[in-house]
Amino acid sequence: MTRKTAVAAATVANLGPGFDVLGLCLEGPRDTVTAELTTDGLVTLVDVTGPIEVVQKLSGDALQNCAGVSAKAVLDAFAPGAGVRLWLDKGLPLGSGLGSSSASSVAAAVATAACIDPRMPKDFLFSAVREGERLATGTPHPDNVAPCLFGGIVACLHGDDEHVDLVTLPVPRGLMVVAVKPDFEVKTADARAVLPKEVPMKDAVRNLGAMAGLVKALATSDFQLLGRCLEDRLATPYRKRLIPGYDDAVEAALAAHAIGAGISGSGPAMFALCGDRDDALAVADAMVEAFERRQIKARAIVSAIDLDGAQVVS
Ligand code: HSE
């Protein structure tokens, strides 16, 4: 039986003004999925490994786990009638805002596809990985799975139905990302529930201008302009109340020379962009200390932007 293993990394979605649109891929942490094709037509989650507090919250029922749903969508599209056995090793925390469900969905789709055809283009898997996201959050939002699958900084252009086109944005040399995860969970579905159905026109206008500036800033490595273009008015004002210490952490990041900071995905993780590794290390310490001053433990990841996305490793 063909057996393949793939890895897929954490992501920062809702980057700056790009609510549901812009995401970037980190170098880690990663989820790892091994897939083995079968002829029984079943999707089976053989084992889930990782930290006990993570594993015990995940369903062993493959079709209640985004890895299983995503693998099934790949089979349905490219190997109807086949089955797959999956082994999932969780490297990402749950409910973190770092794209945990996406990493499982993407690693499972890439591993399963590699069993079917090692040359299958990643483009073919985009619909399948969004099904994993639909199971996990109720919405097949694309801004975690896209950078997770393809790497880099990706913009998602939403069509009238669920169709999404992807645009890859330039990644400035030296740009570093800090992701800080306070020690509590926010479920994406809950973070979506606090969003208003409509937003004030002046807030939409602010985000539009910021998005234009952000694209130019990335293309020209203009970190000063980038810093002026990372504020979000569509989701952050409503969601930051779910993150005690949010304002303090942003203030600490900026005082330590971050380019800008905000909520990573649906939180509670926060991100900061930095111009080099030394700044990123200082910003990480400052943001962790800001949470700890409120008796909230927090952990930081310092990462470059991964340009390759999910990979088959064996
Ligand atoms: N764009 C999604 C949301 C990302 O904010 O709900 C979730 O990580």
Structural class: alpha+beta
Order of helices and strands: EEEHHEHHHEEEHHHHHEEHEE
| CATH architecture call of the largest domain | 2-Layer Sandwich
Distance between the termini: 14 Å
CATH level-3 fold name of the largest domain: Ribosomal Protein S5, domain 2
Helix fraction bin = 25-40%
How many structural domains are formed by the residues?
Answer: 2
Ligand species: L-homoserine
* CA-based gyration radius: 19 Å
The largest sheet is:
7 strands, mixed
Mean pLDDT: 96
What would CATH call the class of the largest domain?
Alpha Beta
**Number of E-state strands:** 11
Measured by DSSP, the beta-strand proportion falls in 25-35%
Characterize the overall form. Answer: globular
Treating each run of at least 4 consecutive H or I residues as one helix, how many helices?
11
Low-confidence region ranges: none
Provide a descriptive summary of the structure in words.
The chain is of the alpha+beta class and 314 residues long. It folds into 2 domains: 3-169, 2-Layer Sandwich (Ribosomal Protein S5, domain 2); 176-304, Alpha-Beta Plaits (2-Layer Sandwich). The chain is built from 11 helices and 11 strands. Strands 1, 2, 3, 4, 5, 6 and 11 form a 7-stranded mixed sheet that branches. A 4-stranded antiparallel sheet has the order 8-9-7-10. α2 (66-78) runs parallel beside α3 (100-116), α2 (66-78) packs antiparallel against α4 (126-137) and α3 (100-116) runs antiparallel to α4. The structure holds L-homoserine.
